[in-house]
Specification:
The chain has 275 residues and is mostly helical. Helix content is 79%, strand content 2%. Strands 1-2 form a two-stranded antiparallel ribbon. The radius of gyration is 22 Å and the shape is globular. The N and C termini lie far apart (86 Å).
């Protein structure tokens, strides 16, 4: 009887539609979604609820903020590896849809919620304006992911700032603890970059290794800050500033390259017309 049951289970697995089978890449994608949801959880329980209940435990808020951001960083790692694994092995027919939905949670909802809570707990913030900025971030990611599903681009390039990079840049801006107006303008600027036509290279090869190293280093900075290590605050501020600078510099280089390409094409066209 047990052998018959095993054979029946095997036949059921074989009869299962391909669209319902999860691959290894899909499992990594679900890890991405889980990290995004847990980032929202820690932002709520460790930052928002203590603020609403009048708790003065700043250490818990710092630990929870660091945990939430580390979870977003882990989501970015899952997002990086699910693409690599899908290219090396395979992805189920659900892979692309799962990836978009998971990215929406981890790099849309989680950072937007982080901005919203910042507007509620920061001394100089305006809650309603922060809520508007959070909506802008969320909608930018929604539009970016929808466009990514519909538009075919040349291989090796993204159009607009990738949502993981955008989410980490938004969170870095908040952690810098700048005055409210510069913080708000910078967040809206990142949202605009995510829906812009600026081209960003896909993280492959050396670039993927560099991105992974950057994420692991950022986790170390957050851990040092969370546990109040000597110089942890300075290290965190430095890491966040570098992330924001990188987010601003890449579009400038991409735009300059596009302008130079346009000029070269015009010169070639003129040379062809006047031999």
């Amino acid at each position: 009887m047990p052998e018959a049951d095993e054979d029946s289970d095997a036949d059921g697995a074989e009869d299962m539609p391909l669209s319902m089978r999860l691959s290894i890449a899909d499992t990594l994608t679900l890890g991405n979604a889980t990290c995004g949801f847990m980032a929202v959880y820690f932002t709520t329980t460790g930052i928002l609820i203590p603020h609403l209940t009048g708790s003065e435990e700043t250490g818990m808020a710092r630990h929870s903020a660091a945990t939430a951001v580390i979870l977003m960083l882990m989501a970015a790692i899952f997002d990086l590896f699910d693409g690599l694994v899908a290219r090396k092995l395979r992805s189920s027919p659900m892979g692309a849809e799962l990836d978009n939905l998971s990215d929406l949670i981890s790099f849309g909802l989680a950072p937007a919620y982080f901005v919203l809570v910042y507007g509620m707990v920061a001394d100089d913030a305006h809650q309603r304006v922060s809520a508007l900025a959070a909506i802008v971030v969320l909608l930018a990611v929604v539009l970016r992911l929808a466009r990514f599903s519909c538009v075919t681009l040349k291989d090796g390039m993204f159009q607009g700032m990738p949502s993981p990079f955008g989410a980490l840049t938004v969170v870095s801006i908040v952690l810098l603890e700048l005055p409210f107006v510069p913080t708000l303008l910078a967040i809206i600027g990142v949202a605009w970059l995510m829906v812009s036509r600026v081209e960003y290279p896909k993280p492959r090869g050396i670039l993927a290794v560099a991105m992974l190293s950057w994420i692991v280093g950022a986790m170390g900075l957050l851990a040092a800050w969370a546990f109040d290590a000597p110089g942890g605050q300075l290290l965190l501020q430095t890491g966040c500033a570098l992330q924001v600078v990188l987010g601003a510099v890449i579009p400038l280089f991409a735009t300059a390259r596009r302008v130079n390409t346009f000029r070269d094409n015009r010169r070639e066209a003129r040379a062809a017309q006047h031999p």
